[in-house]
Amino acid sequence: MKNSLYTKLSLTLASIFILTASLFLWWTQSVSQVSRAQAEQALHLGLAEHLANDNPLLKQGVYDYKALENLFHTLMVLGPAFEFYFVDPSGKLLTFSAKPGQVKRQFIDLVPLVTLIEDQSNLPIYGDDPRNFDHKKIFSVAPVYNGDTLQGYLYVIIGSSIYDSIFASIKSSEQILVNSIWLVLGLGFLLISMLVVFRTITKPLRTLSSFIQKVDKTEFDITELPLLDWPKHHNEIHQLGAAVNRMLITINQQMMQLTKLDEQRRELLAHLSHDLRTPLASLQGYLELLNKEAPNANEKAAHYLNVTLKNCGQLKALIDQIFELAHLESGQTNINLEVFNLGELIYDVMAKFALRAEKAGIQLQVHPKECDFSVYSDIAKLERILTNLIENALRHTNQGGTICVNIVLDSNQYKIVVADTGVGISSEDLPYIFEARYRASNSLGCKKSHAGLGLAITNRLIQLIKSDIKVKSELGKGTEFAFTLRASKPV
Question: Where in the cell is it found (predicted)?
């Protein structure tokens, strides 16, 4: 199931919100830590220098732990947040206030120490933590001289391990936890509020989308579906909904007008063809009678009479086709489905054209020859379909050509293919061959010998028997018309 627009936008909004909140918390925490470190280092910047100047033992170059033990003890009591180290000019730790075994480094990097001594404007500056290989800490440092000789550096870590553990416990105290909970609840409430507001804003869009889907299912017939009531001049989505309503009303009115005009056209064609049939039949009868009773008429009069009879027959055929097409399009045609033998019907239709095909030098074939297949369809309409297709093939096939009806089993259906080796249909004409009054530009023989409605009638008949016709053609190589019929029982 596809996610809705609201779901996608909500997920995107929530992801961006969580990411932004996480980055903000990380940034504020980092800024807080840097600010705290900067303030503490600036506050205790001169600590090491004062200690070095106020202790004669350090000035004398005494750095033995036992000698300095009382000094370190006193300093630790007064400032438990500090750790004291004495470092020689190469960075080696000579003595320290920590107990033996707690210091893991033997050397520290002197670059941060020298940087702080030379420039105290860019704080905080972090130095190595002798108790940990991975940590850095702020510090205070002072060089220790004996005369002009550099004895080493007094390296004071600001924020001892005791200080870190106490500060960590404070951070995890109940007050911090309560504040964190309130912060999370506040952020959650803000997120939920934003989602509710967003859902309220997008609700009209979802309503419009659902309405358009329902309209599409009814094929834009709004008589079966009431239009939505949109507030006037509320927002852009409501304005869009009102515009959609107006558009649907216009489309529906135009469709009703087109339907009415189409019905009027069909009725007119049916009435005209019906009204023309009676006088035309009377005219044709009198012309045939005149032709029989005037055997002694001169040759010129006989020729004129034959031409008149021929044109009268063509006009009758045209009116019959118009009447048939109008009747098929009226939607009042009955479908009589039954089980019958497909092979027998095909051979009966072939027999109607056998003499005409023989005179034209065209072979008629059926494959397979033994086609004892039972189908479930309307036999009368299928006969008319095959008649039109074979007659169309005869009209477009040269002397010496072949017209073949192939029957192929295809998934409990029989595929009927009427193929010829005629002149074929151009790619420009192919999309229009089932339209009324179509007649290919490469039609053989007299262009007035047919009405041009045969394929339109065939297409409509195939639709009535719940099938679909497909055509393949190539100029100079022939044409194939194919459609399927339901088998009377599973094959």
Answer: Cell membrane
Cβ pair 147, 42 in contact under 8 A: no
User: What span, in angstroms and rounded, lies between the C-alpha atoms of 188 and 177?
Assistant: 16
**Confidence at residue 482, expressed as pLDDT on a 0 to 100 scale:** 92
> What is the chain's alpha carbon radius of gyration, rounded to the nearest angstrom?
51
Q: Which of 413, 438, 418 is nearest to 428 (CA)?
A: 438
Give the three-class secondary structure for 303: helix
Q: Is 291 helix (H, G, I), strand (E, B) or coil?
A: helix
Sign of the torsion formed by the C-alpha atoms of 349, 350, 351 and 354 = positive
Q: Which of the 8 DSSP states describes residue 122?
A: S
Residue 448 has a pLDDT of: 40
Mean pLDDT over each residue of the chain, to the nearest integer: 76
Tokens 């358009």 sit on residue: 212
The residue whose two tokens read 């106020």 is 54
For 261-292, letters b (16+ CB in 10 Å) and e give eeeeebeebbeebeebeeebeeebeebeeeee
What does the alpha-carbon distance between residue 273 and residue 284 come to, in Å, rounded to a whole number? 16
318: its two tokens: 């045209």
Q: Are 427 and 477 in contact (CB under 8 A)?
A: no
CB neighbour list of residue 76: distance below 8 Å, 6 or more residues apart: 82, 84, 97
Task: For residues 48 and 77, give the distance between their C-alpha atoms in angstroms, rounded to a whole number.
Answer: 16
Identify the three-state secondary structure at position 227: coil
The token duo for 344 is 């027998």
Closest listed residue to residue 479, CA positions, set 409, 437, 417, 436: 417
Q: What is the secondary structure of 73-117 as a DSSP string?
A: HHHHHH-TTEEEEEE-TTSBEEEESSPTTS---SB--SHHHHHHH
CB 72 within 8 A of CB 84: yes
Nearest to 335 by CA among 305, 276, 376: 376
CA distance 66 to 70: 8
| 402-409/413-420 β-pairing | antiparallel
Q: What are the chain's domains? A: 44-171 (3.30.450.20), 218-333 (1.10.287.130), 338-486 (3.30.565.10)
How many CA within 13 A on the CB side of residue 88? 10
**What is the reported pLDDT for 45?**
73
**Overall average pLDDT of the 133-160 stretch:** 81
